[in-house]
């Protein structure tokens, strides 16, 4: 009994009761104690077995961590941002630091074997009276070892050394400066179209915050798309693809632009504009960028991203989301389809090599129909300007010629989807949007007229 219970002593009452009970009861008690001991021993054996197994699993986990220590540290400390993209036989991959490739490559071994074979051929003695060409004598000469090493190093994929004077140009390409300028211009147009007095300080803060947010979105987009940009002729010279800066440098630049940009829009302008700026960064980097390789719905998501900046300009001036802001966003939303569909039509080979699922690649008929549909839709959106008290009734009339012209080019692109018609539609879209926004600004409904209309409506309601 003491062996079963271990070091615990049984109470005195147990021994007194044991002597007073009968033999049958003692036999039953003894069987219970035996059963208790068997159950305890089996449980103890299972605990020891589980302990040994857990010990083995812990030991195997430690060994696994020791074997893959570089990857473990990479995921724990986010060292993957320090990795460089390096070209290999299978494509473009990442590694912690550029390894020193062996000097001798497969191609150069073949070259050496060819040189050795040439050396084994005995030199032919020229016959008297014949001239020996200098090319034959030069081909038999052995290449110096220093020249051979220099030639092999020139063929290797190396990290480019960038001077501090080159950083402004690299940052401009990383942030897609032309696209950022277009985003700031549309945001400024939304600010100017708002029916409130013009505030220069608010205008500068809204433009600066919008530009910084656009730089952040474009930089993060290039960080995610490096392996795919390397396969496209249009994007293969981007800074991250060429290795001019490290991914850590690019992400640091994006954070240095995004945090002050969103903070400036939130605290310096108003929280609604800051929310729209943060939402635009999220949509561009986390929705539009991965959708480009999954579905043609990326074009519609990208159109929403392009439609938000004029809405941000309107909300920066008024602090509210009015129908006029939604109308300006609708202008940008519809304009992007003839613009981008015409651009992507001539880049179908590039997009297919990069693995992007664009309408021009997977659904060419839909690409042309959507471009025509939204070009015609610009005419009806222009007619909504005076209806929503954003512009005067002259705006639909003066904007009708340019809207009809882009619709005509979109119809020709729909009928004959060739490179010439797509280029004409694309270049027309480049001047169509600034002209449309300028006409809307010149035909903007004055604040006095809007106040008079509000007073008239209020007096009419009081009279009723």
Description:
- By secondary structure, this protein is mainly α.
- Among the domains are: 164-320, Tetracycline Repressor, domain 2 (Orthogonal Bundle), CATH 1.10.357.140; 322-446, Four Helix Bundle (Hemerythrin (Met), subunit A), CATH 1.20.120.
- The protein has helices at residues 2-5, 12-20, 23-67, 69-77, 106-120, 134-139, 145-155, 167-174, 177-193, 200-224, 226-229, 239-242, 247-269, 271-291, 298-318, 323-345, 348-354, 359-362, 364-387, 394-398, 400-415, 419-442, 447-463; strands at residues 84-88, 91-95.
- A two-stranded antiparallel sheet has the order 1-2.
- A hairpin with a 2-residue loop joins strand 1 (84-88) and strand 2.
Q: What's the structural blueprint in terms of helices and strands?
A:
Elements: H1 2-5, H2 12-20, H3 23-67, H4 69-77, E1 84-88, E2 91-95, H5 106-120, H6 134-139, H7 145-155, H8 167-174, H9 177-193, H10 200-224, H11 226-229, H12 239-242, H13 247-269, H14 271-291, H15 298-318, H16 323-345, H17 348-354, H18 359-362, H19 364-387, H20 394-398, H21 400-415, H22 419-442, H23 447-463
């Amino acid at each position: 009994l003491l062996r079963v219970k271990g070091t615990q002593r049984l109470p005195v009452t147990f021994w007194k009761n044991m002597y007073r009970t009968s033999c049958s009861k003692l036999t039953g008690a003894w069987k219970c104690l035996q059963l208790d001991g068997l159950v305890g021993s089996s449980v103890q054996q299972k605990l020891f077995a589980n302990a040994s197994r857990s010990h083995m699993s812990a030991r195997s986990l430690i060994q696994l961590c020791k074997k893959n220590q570089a990857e473990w540290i990479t995921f724990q400390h986010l060292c993957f941002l320090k990795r460089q993209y390096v070209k290999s036989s299978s494509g473009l991959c990442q590694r912690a630091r550029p390894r020193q490739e062996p000097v001798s490559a497969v191609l150069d071994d073949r070259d050496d074997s060819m040189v050795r074979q040439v050396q084994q051929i005995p030199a032919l003695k020229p016959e008297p009276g014949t001239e020996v060409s200098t090319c034959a004598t030069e081909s038999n000469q052995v290449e110096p070892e220093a020249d051979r090493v220099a030639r092999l190093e020139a063929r290797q994929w190396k990290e480019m050394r960038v001077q501090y004077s080159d950083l402004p140009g690299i940052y401009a390409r990383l942030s897609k400066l032309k696209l950022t300028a277009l985003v700031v211009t549309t945001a400024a147009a939304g600010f100017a179209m708002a029916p409130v007095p013009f505030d220069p300080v608010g205008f500068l803060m809204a433009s600066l915050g919008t530009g910084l947010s656009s730089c952040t979105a474009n930089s993060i987009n290039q960080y995610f798309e490096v392996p795919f940009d390397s396969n496209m002729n249009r994007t293969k010279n981007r800074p991250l693809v060429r290795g001019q800066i490290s991914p850590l440098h690019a992400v640091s630049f994006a954070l240095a632009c995004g945090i002050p940009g969103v903070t400036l829009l939130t605290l310096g302008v108003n929280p609604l504009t800051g929310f729209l700026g943060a939402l635009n960064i999220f949509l561009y980097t986390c929705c539009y960028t991965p959708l480009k390789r999954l579905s043609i719905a990326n074009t519609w998501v990208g159109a929403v991203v392009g439609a938000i900046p004029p809405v941000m300009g309107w909300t920066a001036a008024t602090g509210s989301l009015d129908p006029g802001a939604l109308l300006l966003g609708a202008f940008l939303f519809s304009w992007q389809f003839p613009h981008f569909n015409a651009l992507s039509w001539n880049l179908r080979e590039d997009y297919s090599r990069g693995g992007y699922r664009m309408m021009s690649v997977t659904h060419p008929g839909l690409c042309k129909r959507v471009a025509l549909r939204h070009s015609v839709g610009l005419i009806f959106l222009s007619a909504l300007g005076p209806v929503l008290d954003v512009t005067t009734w002259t705006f639909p009339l003066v904007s009708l010629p340019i809207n009809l012209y882009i619709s005509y080019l979109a119809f020709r692109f729909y009928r004959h989807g060739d490179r010439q018609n797509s280029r004409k539609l694309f270049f027309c879209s480049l001047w169509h949007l600034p002209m449309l926004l300028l006409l809307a600004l010149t035909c903007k409904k004055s604040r006095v007229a809007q106040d008079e209309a509000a007073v008239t409506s209020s007096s009419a309601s009081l009279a009723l």
